[in-house]
Design brief:
about 350 residues; 2 domains; seven-stranded parallel beta sheet; five-stranded parallel beta sheet; disordered C terminus; binds glyoxylic acid; NAD; NAD binding; peroxisome; glycerate dehydrogenase
Length: about 350
Amino acid sequence: GKHRVVSTKSMPGTRWIRLLTDQDCRVEICTEKKTILSVDDILALIGDRCDGVIGQLTEDWGEVLFSALRRAGGTAFSNMAVGYNNVDVTAANKYGVAVGNTPGVLTETTAELAASLSLAAARRIVEADQFMRAGLYDGWLPHLFVGNLLKGQTVGVIGAGRIGSAYARMMIEGFKMNLIYYDLYQATRLEKFVTAYGQFLKANGEQPVTWKRAATMEDVLREADVISLHPVLDKTTYHLINTQRLSIMKKEAILINASRGPVIDEAALVEHLKANPMFRVGLDVFEDEPFMKPGLAEQKNAVVVPHIASASKWTREGMATLAALNVLGKIKGYPIWSNPNSVEPFLDENSPPPA
Ligand code: GLV
Ligand code: GLV
């Protein structure tokens, strides 16, 4: 008989469906209208026979779902996301369910969104747009929406893995910023890039860019003008940015988060934004999605977008394809690069993206 594969959401493109149906899988896509499925909704989807599930980062994949999937004969689960803080991998392993994620295909798209937020914050794009639409523009003025020049400033990256490194490179190459980064691993390729680019600029009679690997995260917070957060969310990075750490940042710094909301103590951030009108933030993720902490929406020095960092057509189709391949690979026993038996290969932030 056919393998039953369930996707908790409709996903972009059709390639992912074809890949599965070509290999004797029957694909069932949940038609439930509500945005976030509960554990009970997903239990009903799994039913009493299910070989694999493609799920979403909004879902709580723990003991209850993995034991149910196991009882239904399932062996494979793939998150359609690179982050998997919503997945209890230990529970999955306990029930013999392999877990996959979708790294690589979203690296550049996510970095481009972090860069977009950086520019939007630096040049006050959203405030200025609202001003125009409100009919408030009555003529050019020397003081109107003055922002920050990035050239020659320092970009700080916390977590220089695939996404953090791609973002750093965009900001350095695009805007000739200097780099300071903090990561447990040395970002060798990124360092080499900055050195080579600095030499290129110098040879052209321009100010060279420089890099520094910080000994502590605090060094990045103190020295950088634009800081982007790219860690994995776990116990060690929960509320990484808190009142104390906000207080050591420059008064006119820009903070970007396109990783996971709980990396920032959002209530503390709201207070900081209120007290420091020149401090600006660009947020793609929030502590209690889909909600924002009280006061955040009223802050003009915040640019907020609804968790869209990986939302390019190419990337979303790629994520769906990869998620399908993860599940298919496990069901069929294929050795595929995104080893669906474990998420371990992707725990190394410096592992290269797939060719
Ligand atoms: C999105 O947030 C992802 O982790 O892919
Ligand atoms: C993982 O989060 C990455 O940087 O790709």
